[in-house]
Design a protein that fits this description.
The chain is built from seven helices and nine strands. The protein is of the alpha/beta class. It has a single domain, classed as Rossmann fold (3-Layer(aba) Sandwich). β5 and β6 form a beta hairpin. The longest helix has 16 residues, at 156-171. It is globular. The two termini are 26 Å apart. Residues 1-17 have low confidence and may be disordered.
């Protein structure tokens, strides 16, 4: 299984405040959103970036809380102006991370976290090479498959697509600065906080 740290991680440079952006990524079903929810509950000082998207708000979603909802034209403008750290397309909608709020929080010394996919993490590596990229890994492939199937919310063809993507994402683990195995959410949060501070 993956190591819990690497020598390279100790040498990632930080900004003028000593803070650096932390990126959390990993395969679908590994528990990223659960870890982030617990991290925000136990450490409200951590700022989680809000993505911009071209998809329509779902019932109960608020502009600027879950997402910034924008038109295709506005998204095109953000991309052209270099105002996104990373962006990707999913199911016909685009999602991206606004650059300015992230840079502002880092400059203010606020611990800053992005929860994004592999494609986004690779883009952040290009646009903000000093960022710390953390890979959240499952305890085993069987556990990941069990979690995806255990949700009971998606048809088999969607699960198979997620599993195929998961194999690709797991193969990219070596691109990250370090890995944390998600055996216990609380333990992962403790490690993440230590890395961020």
């Amino acid at each position: 299984m993956p190591s819990s740290g690497s020598p390279e991680a100790a040498h990632v440079s930080s900004g003028p405040t000593g803070n650096r952006l932390t990126v959390l990524s990993g395969p679908s079903g590994v528990g990223k959103s659960t870890v982030v929810a617990e991290l925000r509950r136990s450490h409200p000082e951590v700022w989680l970036s809000v993505s911009v998207t071209t998809r329509a708000p779902r019932p109960g979603e608020t502009h600027g809380v879950e997402y910034y909802f924008v038109s295709d034209e506005e998204f095109d403008r953000l991309v052209a102006a270099g105002e996104l750290l990373e962006w990707a397309e999913f199911a016909g909608n685009r999602y991206g991370t606004p650059r300015a709020p992230v840079e502002r929080k880092l400059a203010d010394g606020v611990p800053t976290l992005l929860e994004i996919d592999l494609q986004g993490a690779r883009q952040v590596r290009e646009t903000m090479p000093e960022a710390l990229l953390v890979f959240l890994a499952p305890p085993s492939w069987e556990e990941l498959e069990s979690r995806l199937r255990g949700r009971g919310t998606e048809p088999e063809h969607v699960i198979e697509r997620r599993l195929a993507a998961g194999r690709v994402e797991l193969a990219a683990e070596k691109e990250f600065d370090l890995s944390l195995v998600n055996t216990a959410v609380n333990e992962v949060c403790v490690r993440l906080i230590a890395l961020m501070k």
